[in-house]
Automatic annotation (TrEMBL):
Keywords per UniProt: Coiled coil
Chain coiled-coil ranges: 94-121
Region: Disordered, residue numbers: 150-171
Family: Belongs to the PspA/Vipp/IM30 family.
Bias type Low complexity, positions: 151-167
Organism superkingdom: Bacteria
Source species: Paenibacillus mangrovi
Protein's UniProt name: PspA/IM30 family protein
Keyword Coiled coil among UniProt keywords: yes
Record InterPro entries: PspA_VIPP1
Pfam families (alphabetical): PspA_IM30
Length: 211
């Protein structure tokens, strides 16, 4: 449960705020990406374990509930048959299982809550990793453009077409960065079908702008 105890720390991380405070954005991204990927691996392993526990708890709860219902039916049939002693035994056993049922319900509720919490952490980590990947992509693109600009400034600066092309390329990279960040932010709350539709729409909008 070590990674589960860090739920609040994981959930309160704000990538935008983290990057604004970074003195060396590239180094910060690389270091935090390693940390997030390590946490994600632990979360996935823990999630699998918790889901197994949840299924086991649900099975035990359902079996106990079914047994109680069965004992109640037996007691009713015994009464109808005039076997009050047998009916009493069935009801006593039912009362014993009622206490166990409460314990099993509490165990299932806890297991279900832990699994849901871990799933929420997994979604948050996937979103944060996506945002950092988008940031790294944008940072590398801007560094490339900066080198291109330096090269232009040190050489012939008479080509207006080259400058215009540079600006257009930079605008496209910034647009790609914004779209990637938007996908990362939505990833945690979207299922795969929703993401496929979102990606298709973003690609459609991007193609229209390029035309």
């Amino acid at each position: 449960m070590g990674i589960l105890s860090r739920f609040k720390d994981v959930m309160k991380v704000n990538i935008n705020s983290l990057m604004e405070r970074a003195e060396d954005p590239e180094k910060t991204i690389d270091e935090y990406m390693r940390s997030l990927n390590s946490d994600l691996g632990k979360v996935k392993a823990e999630t699998a374990s918790l889901l197994t526990n949840e299924r086991r708890a649900k099975t035990a709860l359902d079996e106990c509930s079914a047994e109680i219902k069965k004992l109640m039916r037996y007691a009713e049939k015994s009464v109808e048959a005039g076997n009050e002693d047998d009916a009493r035994k069935f009801l006593e056993r039912k009362a014993q299982l009622a206490g166990k049922l409460s314990e099993l319900q509490a165990a299932y509720d806890q297991a279900s809550s832990n699994a849901a919490t871990m799933k929420q952490m997994q979604d948050k980590l996937v979103s944060d990793i996506g945002q950092l990947e988008a940031r790294r992509l944008g940072l590398k693109g801007k560094m490339t453009f900066a080198k291109m600009q330096q090269s232009l400034n040190s050489g012939s600066s008479s080509s207006g077409k080259v400058s215009s092309s540079f600006s257009a390329m930079e605008e496209r990279v910034n647009q790609a960065l914004n779209e990637a960040e938007a996908l990362a932010e939505l990833r945690a709350g979207k299922n795969e079908d929703d993401l496929d539709e979102l990606i298709a729409q973003l690609e459609k909008d991007s193609n229209k702008e390029q035309d």
